[in-house]
Design goal:
The chain is mainly beta. It has one domain. Helix content is 6%, strand content 44%. The chain is built from one helix and nine strands, in the order βββαββββββ. Strands 4-5-6-7 form a four-stranded antiparallel β-sheet. Strand 5 and strand 6 form a beta hairpin.
Length: 97
């Protein structure tokens, strides 16, 4: 299991982050693909899956750690207005009304 810490900056602003690996008890730099695709609000589910909302495009994506890439889950104009995102029990909520 790995925990992430990232300044949850919206949009295309420069980001940085680190990952804590509880199995090795070490901090590591975020993988390049994770960092590059982190474009907005984020939520983790079961400490395994990270979801991110790209408000500029109205996209919800999840991180594929095996391929170090983000995979599109949904595209919807309501995601452009998202102020927060939460994920639990296999579902996500974007915080819009």
């Amino acid at each position: 299991m790995k925990l992430t810490e990232n300044g949850n900056v919206k949009g295309d602003a420069a980001k940085e982050g680190i990952i804590y690996d509880v199995e090795t008890d070490c901090w590591e730099e975020m993988p390049e693909g994770m960092l590059a695709g982190w474009r907005g609000l984020a939520a983790a589910m079961d400490e395994e899956t990270i979801y991110v909302v790209d408000e500029s495009k109205g996209l919800l994506e999840k991180y594929d750690h095996m391929n170090d890439t983000w995979v599109e889950v949904a595209e919807n104009d309501t995601l452009k207005a998202a102020q927060q995102v939460a994920a639990a029990g296999g579902k996500h909520h974007d915080g819009t009304e």
